[in-house]
Structure formats: structure tokens, C-alpha cells
Amino acid sequence: MITFDGVTKRYPDGNVAVDHLDLEIPAGQTTVLVGPSGCGKTTSLRMINRMVEPSTGRIRVDGRDVRDQDPAELRRSIGYVIQQAGLFPHRTVADNIATVPYLLGWDRRRARTRAHELMELVGLDADLARRYPHQLSGGQQQRVGVARALAADPPVLLMDEPFSAVDPVVRTSLQDELLRLQQELHKTIVFVTHDIDEAVRLGDTIAVFRPGGRLAQAAAPERLLAEPADDFVEGFIGYDRGVRRLSFFPARELRLRGDAVLAADTPVATARAVAAGGGEPWLLVVDDARRPRGWVSADLLTTADAQTPLGDLPLVGFGHVFTVEDDSLRAALDAAVLSPAGRAVGVTQDGTVVGVVAQSELGEAIWSVGNDDARDAEPVGQDG
Amino acid sequence: MGDQPLVRWDWIASHLVDPIGTRLLEHLQLSITPILLGLLLALPLGVACVRWRALYPPVFTTVNILYAIPSIALFFLLLPYTSFSAWTAIIPLTVYTLAVLVPNVVDGLNQVPDHVRQAAEAMGFGPLRRLVQVELPVALPVVIAGLRVAAVATISMVSVASLVGLGGLGQLILTEGFRRQFPTPIVVGIVLSVALAFLVDGLLVLLQRWWTPWTPRPARAGGRNRRSAAASTAAASSAADRPAAPEGRRRRA
Ligand SMILES: Nc1ncnc2c1ncn2[C@@H]1O[C@H](COP(=O)(O)OP(=O)(O)O)[C@@H](O)[C@H]1O
Ligand SMILES: [Mg+2]
User: What is the CATH number of domain A2-247?
Assistant: First the structure.
């Protein structure tokens, strides 16, 4: 656990970067410091490993005041990742990763072996070991940066906007990777970003900073979205916090309709009866393997020839689907909104159809969670 | 010089060891020593100038003023103290090397990206370790670029040292050639000193490739004809190899 006790940082030019910060950062979890530029996030982070000394107040890591420890030694026990990766241009990928092990006096063989383990852990091809940083893509450089920070297996990891400089696709995959790593490693991660979506996605706790270096609110992401402490936090989170909060509610609790799903060889006459019986304006047609093929409307069924199999009719595209087990209400809502039939198709992980859900039915589910507490503080699926 | 042939091969053949070989060795010794001494002094001086910023302006001004004094004047100025020892040439030439190298060491260190320096600090490098293991190695290409300029300038300036009788290929040109109105030693002296400059420069380029395998290389020009490929490689490498060679310090006499 990392504790800030009444920490203030006033730079020599009189600038107060952090103002009376009290914050507890739980061990083994990811805490995200988020806020607009210049509100003291980097300064707060750097006070943890003594790259910046607080003017007043105290910072403890696992109960020990950081000032009681030699700065260089303290830093070797705290991983650090920065925006441009900060890789050493004159060292190969493997030697960059082995930096802290070398500093700790490991022998060369052991450090190299460790570097190779870490390359595998962060998803870097072993062939890259002998390359130099300028021969890597931005995303690969960041992976090396993360591997280097983890090399000596420090319990604490500080990350200062590590994914801000890469393009959105690479950023998403790096975020996924970090979530996966954290599930495996349970480090105490302090992650700085100015991007609230990234914060919601990665954080177990989010600490929102306001200009002037003051903490505005620290809470689990779902709480933050449900109950922003004040207008500043609400404005910073953005206007669609209600919809985004749906990320924290799993879609698996939705009641999906299996009866509105028919095989492609079903004759139109049978389908008509199903549509009339359920009052369904749209039916989903699936193939032999129960994969979705498209929507057929009740209107079309009334005019089509009674013996034609549904598969031979002109079907309306089913748009994108949501995965019942992994996705959130937000993904289900998104699929329904984008569907020409106004209905979302829920599938299993291998893509077979579980059932469909209409916007109106989704609305009820959303309403029922509206004032409820989240059952699950972890973001669900890929859309947090 | 009348109607003698420009090069008399028989003279060259009979004087290959003495004076040609002797003068060449002298020349080499008179240029290598100040280059190495200059490098040895420029590194700590440059590091100090980066560490204590206020130091740089006076140091820079001082070496520039010394650099502005014609070498021949410095040689004569030193003669009463060092007489005809090698030091009379070595001391001024070391000062010139310093004048070229100190700004390069300073520029090289200043060009170390901030995020690299900060990453080193955050990984737990102490200040000295960071300097030796990160900052100086990253500054090395700029330092070597300066070294190339200094080496070529020094090799050509050693010839001037002969005017005050300090030996080297200049001696060959002056006493064997000019005073005796005999062109062959003059040609030999010029060709050898140019060749020496090329050789030393080439060695430094090789050294750079070997010491800094991590610097971005221009892409190989495959498929194109040899001349244009060579030209583009030369252009790219001179741009990459001399990022901060100070203007107007290429040559002096
Ligand atoms: N070394 C410094 N000297 C003076 N002021 C600084 C220094 N570093 C940061 N600041 C100021 O402190 C404030 C907070 O900076 P920082 O912690 O970097 O914010 P953030 O990371 O949230 O963008 C800013 O106003 C910044 O200008
Ligand atoms: Mg910052």
C-alpha cells in the first residue's frame, strides 16, 4: 500500500503542483490518477520514487517512509514506465530490459534469461532481443518499456501516460495486455493518464485531480460514474457517463429471446405463425451451425410464398453482435442501437446465437440497474 | 624549379626510409598525441560545462580566443619555454583539438533526450553511473564527429609546425623541397599528409561503426548503379556522422 499524508509540493518558482494530497493506494490493485494537464499527476507519481521531494507531508510505501530509503535503491524496487518509453538507444532490447537486474548486480546470464522471459510475458517476439530501440514500432517500444519496468519483479509499478503517444488501435491492445498482465501479477500499479476512458477501463480506483493539484474525488470507476462528487468531476467525466456506466453491468443477466430465432430451412408458413404468436416484428434467421444470417421482417413474411425456406428470402444484415458471457449492457445496447431491426443478437464465445433482445427490453434492464449499485466493480468485456 | 620533372621516382626510391619514412612517423606522432590529449581533456571539461552551466560561456570564449590565434604565432610563443621539443607543437595543437571537441561534448550531452535521462534516473542509476553508462555513450556519435574534424585539422596543422623546425612532413616540403627548389619532396609531402588525413578519418569512421552500432544507418541503396548509391550513402553518412561539427572549424593553417 502507498499512502500520501498531507503531501504538498511547491516548486522553487512558487508553483504549487500538488496541494495537501491525502490518498491511499491499495496494494495489488491499479489506481489511476486522472485529470487535465498540469494538475499535478506526474508530480504526485514522482514523489513516490523520490524523483521529486515533497515540500511537506509524508509518503509511505508499505508503511516505510520513502525518505528513509536511499533514492537509487528505492527506485530499483519500483518499476517506472514513461510516455516515450525512455529506452536507452545504445542498448539492445534485451539489455534495456535487463537494466535493473544489471544494476542489482545479477550475473549476465541470469539477467539475459530474465529479459527473455519478460519479452514473452509482454508479447514481444524473441527475434527482437538483439534489435536497438530505433528499429521498433511505437507499440513495441512501449512493451519493452513495460518489460524493463517489470524486470526485477518490483511490487510497485509507476506508469506515466505510457500509452498516450501510440495510435488508438495499438493503445487498446496495450491496455488489454496490461489488464491481462495485472490479472496474472497483481502489482500495485499507479497509472497516470489524462484520458478518462482509459482510467475507467484500467482502474480499480480512480483519483480525479483538479487544476491547482487538489484531489477532487477518489472512487471505484462505477461509483465515480454514478456519483461524481461535484461539477468539476462530472464535467471531466463527460456527458455520456450514464451510458458508459453500463460497462459495469454484465449482459449475461439479460433475458434473451430464443423463440425469435429460426433455422434457414424453416418454411415461411411456420415463421408466420411464430411471428404472429409472439407479436414479433422481426425474426433472426440462423444457419445450420446457429450462426446469424440476417433478419426477416414480419411484413415480408406476409407477402412471401408460404413454402419458401427463410434462407431464400432477402435478409436484412444483422449488424454486430454481443457476447453474452463477456460483454456488458453497454455492448448490448450498442448492438441494439446499430441493428436495423432495433434488436441485438447475443452470441456465445464461439459465435453461435443464444437469442435476441429488443431495445425496449434492454431499456427495462437498464432502468433496473439505474439506481442500483454495480454488482461487479470490474469493467465487463472490451468496451469499458 | 626550372624544367625538372615534378616527380623523380629515383629520388623517392632512394629516400624512402630517410627522410620520407622518418618524417611521416614524426608527423603521425605529432598529430596523434594532441588528438588523444585533447580528447582526454575535453571529456571532463565538457561534462563539467554541462553540470555547471555557468562554466560553459567562459570556457567556450577562452578556447575560441585561443583557437583564433594563428598556430605559427603560438609555436613561436612557446619556443622560449619548450624550445625544439615536441611539446612546442603538441601544446597548441591540443588546445585546438579542445576548441573543437568541448562544444561537441557539450552538444552531445545536451542532445541526450530528456526522457532517456529521466528513465535512467527512475531505474535507479546514480549520477556518475548515469553519466558513464548512459549519457556519454549516447553522446558518443557527436563526440566522434568532432574528433574527425579535429583529427583532420590537426594533421594539416602539423605541417606548419615545421616552419619552426619541429619535424613532420612539413619539414620534407620545406627543407628538402622548397629551399632546394626541388619539387619531388613537396609533392610527396603533400600527398602523404593528405593520405594520412584520409586514413585517420577512415579509421575514425570505422571506430564509430564499431562503437556505436546502434545509430540509425541510412538504408542500403540496393539495385541502383554504384556511383549514385555511393554518393547517396556518402551524403547520408556525412549528415548522420557530423550532426554538430561546429561551422568553420574544418581547416586552418
Ligand atoms: N520542475 C518544475 N518546476 C516548476 N514547476 C513545475 C515543475 N514541474 C512541473 N511544474 C508545474 O507543476 C504543475 C503540475 O505539473 P505536473 O505534475 O507535470 O502535471 P500533470 O502531470 O498533471 O500534467 C504544472 O503547473 C507544472 O507547470
Ligand atoms: Mg504529466
Answer: 3.40.50.300
